[in-house]
Amino acid sequence: MPKNRKKGEIHMVYTVKLDSSDDKVFNLMQFNSMTFDMECKLVVCTDDLKTVKSAFTNFKTLDIYRDDVQIATYTCFNNYKEISLQQGLYNNTNGEWEDALIVSLTRANIVEQVQRLDEKVNQIVDINALTIDEYKNYLQEKNKTALAEFLASQSVEFNGKLYGVSEEDQNEMALNFMQYQALTTAGQQVTLEWHSKKSACETFTAEEFVQLTAMIKAFVYPYFQQMNVIKQQIFSSTSREELDKIEIKYEVIPVQSTEPTIPSDGEGKMDETGKDSVTTEE
């Protein structure tokens, strides 16, 4: 175990893949989508300048993964603007101080962006031409996309406000809290912040942040389990006929009512309990 890592700590591993190529995959020291959207920079865990320059030249798509789960796709970049070597950066995924390359990206023009997005989203796949293993992989990608789209439309209510439950929301919250803990442990005075849907950030106490995180995790968990059940069905199938029968569909699971019952004569009264609400955005 690295000396800087505490026992029991869980650290997420981020990777970037260019043009969906397994030959263009690099580990990242960290990733925050909000920071990336503003700065257009990636911290790549390598000092192999030649390989990184080659990979980040004239690319079309940039996919971000967290622990092998795709969390974001970008089609708005097409080249590197600048690559610089930064020595002695702290790598939170392994608790070591390492050298890394800071890759600044340039954006494609709007026409290229639209064309690339259309190619990415509206891929025409002839499923009849796929082998059974390729078909399984295709269905699993469809399964993951369906879950991501479903979660993006959902919310949980906390302190009278709606908060997102998407993979991106969970990723950013985890990174936000991890950074807060690291800075607090280092003795710095920092403010913990997060935002409800379509709102600016506001201050949270650590207890409030953990409570909201727990609510989101509790909401997402049964759908994540459903995704894994469908995944198991896909990869355990032995024929196309079986695969074609698998339904990939996500719908809101009804929350068991916690309304108090009306006591009959002579019976004691039941205390009313609080309820968390779940909202689906149209």
Keyphrases for this structure?
four-stranded antiparallel sheet, alpha+beta, globular, disordered N terminus, 282 residues, three-stranded antiparallel sheet, 12 strands, single chain
Descriptive overview:
With 282 residues, the chain is α+β, with helices and mostly antiparallel strands. The chain is 36% helix and 24% strand. The protein is built from seven helices and twelve strands. The strands form four sheets. It has a four-stranded antiparallel beta sheet, covered by helices on one side. Strands 3-7-6 form a three-stranded antiparallel beta sheet. The chain is globular. 17% of the residues are buried.
Brief description of this entry?
This protein is of the alpha+beta class and 282 residues long. The chain has helices at 33-39, 49-55, 110-121, 132-152, 167-185, 206-236, 240-244, and strands at residues 14-18, 25-28, 41-44, 62-66, 69-74, 77-91, 96-107, 154-158, 161-164, 193-194, 202-203, 278-280.
Task: Describe the secondary structure blueprint for this structure.
Layout lengths: L13 E5 L6 E4 L4 H7 L1 E4 L4 H7 L6 E5 L2 E6 L2 E15 L4 E12 L2 H12 L10 H21 L1 E5 L2 E4 L2 H19 L7 E2 L7 E2 L2 H31 L3 H5 L33 E3 L2
Antiparallel strand pairs: 1-2, 1-4, 3-7, 4-5, 6-7, 8-9, 8-12, 10-11
Number of strands: 12
Low-confidence stretches: 1-10, 257-277
Q: Which band does the percent of strand residues land in?
A: 15-25%
Overall pLDDT level: 82
N-to-C CA distance: 47 Å
Q: What structural category do the secondary elements indicate?
A: alpha+beta
Task: Indicate the percent of residues in helices.
Answer: 25-40%
Order of helices and strands: EEHEHEEEEHHEEHEEHHE
Task: Name the quaternary structure.
Answer: single chain
Mind describing the biggest β-sheet?
4 strands, antiparallel
Shape descriptor reads: globular
Backbone CA Rg = 22 Å
Side-by-side strand order of the widest sheet: 2-1-4-5
Question: How many DSSP H or I helices?
Answer: 7
